[in-house]
Sequence to fold (90 residues):
Amino acid sequence: MKKPDVGTTLGKCVFDNGVIVEGSGLRSDYATLRQGRWICGECLLGLLDTAFEAFLQQQEDSKKETEKLIRKVSKYGWKVNPETGKLEKL
Ligand SMILES: [Zn+2]
Fold:
């Protein structure tokens, strides 16, 4: 995508409702479009801690979910081969 000229209005940030103008530093340098809506760089970077926390939590939750599934299949006489990662009948 061609970089817009300095001073061009990119759009309005959905979080802080402020206008994002090309060449306004953090706000425009790291601005991003999501589903046709702008998020300015300041708001995006401000979400980093929360987003990272959510990412770690999600990893933890999916690990738990996997362990739960493994316990469930073993109840029905299957196990996961640790070398291949595939299900095997016991
Ligand atoms: Zn913003």
Summary: Residues 7 and 44 are 21 Å apart (CA to CA). The chain has a mean pLDDT of 92. The beta strands are 9-12, 19-21, 32-34, 37-39, 78-80, 87-89.
